[in-house]
Amino acid sequence: MDLNRPIILYMHAGSGNHGCEAIADSTLKLIEKKRLEAGVDTMIPVVVATNSEAEDRKYSLGALEKKGLCVLVEDRHIDREFIPHALYYVYRKVSGDKESFQRFKYKDAFRAFDKAVSDYREKNPHTQFSGKPLAVSIGGDNYCYPEMVDDLILAHNVFKKKGFETVLWGCSIEPDSLMNGWLREDLKSYDRIYARESITRDALVVAGVEEDRVELRKDPAFELDTSKVSIPKHFLPGKTVGINLSPMVQNKETVPGITIENYKNFIKYILDETDQNVALIPHVVWANNDDRRPLEELYLEFKDTKRVTLIGDAPAQELKGYISKCSFFVGARTHSTIAAYSSGVPTLVIGYSVKSRGIATDLFGTCENYVLPVQELRKPDEMIKAYKWILEKSKG
Questions:
Q1: Please, which of 69, 253, 318, 319 could form a disulfide with 64 given CB 3.0 to 4.6 Å?
Q2: What is the pLDDT of residue 326?
Q3: Burial (0-12, 13-18, 19+ Cβ within 10 Å), 110
Q4: What domain range includes position 329?
């Protein structure tokens, strides 16, 4: 990918989801690294269109902005602005212009992008960019959520019409969703797609995306830095099982309550049958989708043992620091498990989509036993059995 040109990263949901933070952080550092290797100025503008500037500045992206590696610009939220919402709604109804909401959403990002490019050219009048500016959709698994697909397609159209070369970066896509003809045509129109696992890559080629436009590349979060962390009292490095659970996974279970029951039975097994302690580690802290809620339930169940620690919210690099010191990790959030995989920690995934199956298959040759699909959980001891299997396999 030629990086000697201005770049805009879009579909970033905000760093309160530390998986989104990990993707954005690692991508910005990768752009810097590749530009240095190619002898390209690292100060050529990179704009990050984000759902929440406040979240990004609270965690790691604020420091990258201060370093000059990006400009953070918050998306416009049409649902929060009554008059524009009403006017655009009427206009859309009358004109049939479905892309109008997306143009409104990215209005400030386009202004910031144009200003950043203009300012850069003023300071560096002899710099010649290589071709079109680059728009990179960095949402990872956004196309896995049916409720997002229409807006993703419309946003992509807006960037293409603005004259950008477009890239879909680090994506996972459910193969069955490619039956949707509108979606297939959208994906075919990207200049390049980087699939983060082979199930998605192969499905895209079968669906008609030109093979030379699709590249298999690991999720950029595998390259996330690991921060040093202060170890809490009951966290024993190398003798602590890390655990992540998310409300999203719980909402996808088909047997009510089976997920939390498995987690409780698993923690009880660790405390009763091993000398390991337990660390409960959140990875998303959005108000409507907060890992801390189910983890606090688990903590209250076992806190009197004095062997269970609830880790607080922290930037993605710090959370990876805790995960890297675990002897084993169980994760529901994909990027919590990527932090474990990339730290060499044996990992069990409580998955729900193609991303977990695909990543595990690429790493181990199969996802069986490495991934427990939450929709298939039926018995209360399935996590214990999978833990034993992976532990035995890792010894071999």
A1: 69
A2: 98
A3: middle
A4: 240-395
